Amino acid sequence: MPSDEALMLDAGRGDMAAFEKLVARHERTALGVAYRFLGDHHEAEDVAQEAFLRILDAAERYVPTAEFTTYLYTVVSRLCMDGARKRSPVYLDDPPEPSLAPAAADLAGSRERDREVRAALDRLPARQRMAVVLRHFEGLDYAGVARAMGVSTKAVERLLARAREALARTLACGSGDS
Amino acid sequence: MRCAKVRRKLGALLDGELDPTAAGELRGHIESCPSCRSALEELESVESLLGDALAPPHVPGFAARLADEARRRATESRIIREAGPLPSGFGSPSTVFMRVAAALVFAVGLTLGSLMGWSTWRGRTPESRPAAAAEADSLGVYSADCLTDAPEGSLTEAYMSVLTSPAGEE
Question: What global pTM score does this model have?
Answer without folding.
Answer: 0.67
